[in-house]
Amino acid sequence: MHVRNLSHHLMWKETWKTMRNERMGKPNVTYDNAFFQKSSEDFSRRIKFNDYESGRKSTAILSDLVDGRSRVLEIGTGPGTLTIPLSKKVTRIVGIERSEKQIDYLKANLKEAGLDNVEIIHMNWEEVDHDEMTDAFDLVVCSHFLWQVEDLEKLLQTMENASKGFCALLQPCGRDEIVGSIFEKLGEQRYAGQFEPDADYFAYAILREWGRLVNVRYVHYTFERDLEEQIRYVAGFIGRFYEVNLDVSEMIRDFLIKKSGNGRYKEDNTASVMWWKP
Question: Which end of the chain is more exposed for a tag (fewer CB within 10 A), N or C?
């Protein structure tokens, strides 16, 4: 793999480690024993909103990179945010996913969509035999996954080694401001982006240092939630810094009810779509 020999490099690794630790802590949520099961169901339902809007729009951007004969490797499928729309455009997707629960949702979503061209590997991407995948795919893509990666350079190297065509990253940009508002209401900390999903600029900086010419486009999409879903959504972030017990959950409920009188919460989102040729 070709990497430029530069006299100076960006010192990003400690910042990545600190920000990743903030975002990856397991929420301390005690007000509902079924919280994590319900949150997983919420996520699977949410990504299907408006016929997989996020995945559809991302697939449209990537459509020039693939055709009906293409083989795709997807690292971190989740419940199928990108997998479902993309599988309709290519001959086969090999998806790597370590969460058994997410695989169950993915299988159900594939069945619901009538798709049978996705092979699912239940494994951590770092444990896969990457030698068998060298130059095996027309597109290698990683969607909504970056903060779960400890070694970002290793992920990018793995993607490049497996691709004989293109690599792509999809990553959300920015968080709904209501989460930050509740965070500040709960404590004396100023919200300084502790929940922001942005990780794409780290990957962009690494790839540019390697000499890659990175294309970037943005997609805009919408989610809607009911009150209980929105409480869980907020609690999932707040719980990384505070215990979300019954009292805190009721405070979140009161705050949200004042924000919306109809019990529905619309969230406008943006995600970056980056692609490059290794």
Answer: N
Q: What one-letter code names the amino acid at 154?
A: K
What element of type H or E holds 22? helix 13-24
Beta bridge partners of 173: 270
The predicted structure's pLDDT at residue 262: 67
Nearest Cα neighbor of 15 from 172, 160, 156, 205 is: 205
Rounded to an integer, what distance in angstroms lies between the CA atom of residue 205 and that of residue 220? 23
Q: What is the mean pLDDT of residues 225-230?
A: 94
Count of CB atoms situated within 10 Å of the CB of 120: 18
The helices-and-strands tally (H runs, E runs) of the chain is 10, 7
Residue 29 DSSP symbol? B
* Beta-carbon contacts of residue 201 (< 8 Å; ≥ 6 apart): none
Instruction: Give 156-174 pLDDT, tens digit per residue.
Output: 999 999 999 999 999 999 8
What domains does the chain contain, in order, with CATH numbers? 32-178+195-224+267-276 (3.40.50.150)
